[in-house]
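Suppose you are handed only these lines of text.
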Amino acid sequence: MKPFAVKHKFIPRGKIFFPGDKSISHRALIISALSCGKTVIDNFPIHDDSLATLNTLVALGVRIKRVKHRVIVCGGQGLRQPKSPVFVNNSGTTLRLILGVLAGTDFKTKVIAGKYLSVRPMARVNDPLRLMGAKITARKKGKEEYPPMIVSGGCLKGILYRLPVASAQVKSAILLAGLSASGKTCVVESVGTRDHTERMLKYFGADISINKNKVILNPGCSLISPGSIYIPGDISSAAFFLVLGLIIPGAKIVIQRSSLNPGRIGIIKILKRMGAKIKIEPLKGCKQIFEPMGNLTVSGGKLKGALISRTEVPSLIDELPVLMVAACFAEGKTIIKGAGELRFKETDRINSMITNLRSMGADIRSIGSGSSESIVINGKGFLRGAELKSFGDHRTAMSMVVAALAAKGNSRLDDVSCVSKSFPGFLTALKGLS
Ligand code: S3P
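From them, the structure of the protein bound to shikimate-3-phosphate can be written out as follows.
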């Protein structure tokens, strides 16, 4: 446990640049490994989750070399049965995506997870993979399934699957399994989720198309490496600095080369709806062609409450904790509809954020349950310093540091070491703005 004392009276100003987007980094590694040729991945982020995917692929026999933020993957050599169980640490994306890959192998793999991931639901991904022909056994509790799991890959067949939960991880697992299936795989989404897998598969030459809310993948086209990939900056990490720049009067932060994927910019749209001044400058003409990116400039100002609809939630699912912080510093009511999925992240983020923000004097509550659970915040324009808890969750920890920096009085967070999951440089980045 590494506690962190947060003193207020900090006015962040300056330019900041983030290592590559975590979601894109998983796809870059996995799809490069499955493709013919060598792929050089630049701006690769180094954190627990991206390394979980890298180590998993190495355990499956993929040749990967990393020098700082550059990763070289020698793809197309096939996967081999690992000598011992594969450990995916606490990375949900690694686990769910790799299940899709393992479903198409001709060997048996045991996958084990860290303590936070071992209590996260997996039936949502196991069910469609079983329909495709994979044999998966998992630890069961009632109707739900959890790691550890054993996957016996085999002959898969393409399916038409309507996602019952809006999940990019589940959609991606099905598409990755679809690469080695016989026949077409279609995934239908009632609410759109991030499309990084679709974009990257297309970039590597897969026969994949999108028709309204349906993703259609025809197997048979070999994946060929485009040679190099640049991963745009992580917008989920940038979100902490967007909110920080908005809620501290006098702040001005420029975020360089951030991902601007349309399925990920919900945080920018909603903050603008709340009255934020955010300048977006898309970068054109660079060699980055499969994912949009650009610079963002944010400066402190007054925010007002806003309504966030259920269909907007997937575009800012990981940014909802820091959005709750922004809503506390706004004047008026913010309602986040359909936020129930937050209960199944690294920790129950509805509980972690309500507990912390209430201790800082916020008026925040949840109403309803399941997929229609909503969060209601009556923003008062300020928070007070308090004793805070990370619950072992990186995004709760970083959101609460942001809240504490803008609060009246000092705060103390019990443990900040969990930020290593997605953003080990978080505190250094903050210091760089003082
Ligand atoms: C991710 C998708 C989201 C998100 C997670 C990363 C991905 O989860 O919360 O942090 O990279 O596909 P869902 O599976 O709920 O969409």
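What can we learn from it? The radius of gyration is 21 Å. DSSP finds twelve helices and 25 strands in the chain.
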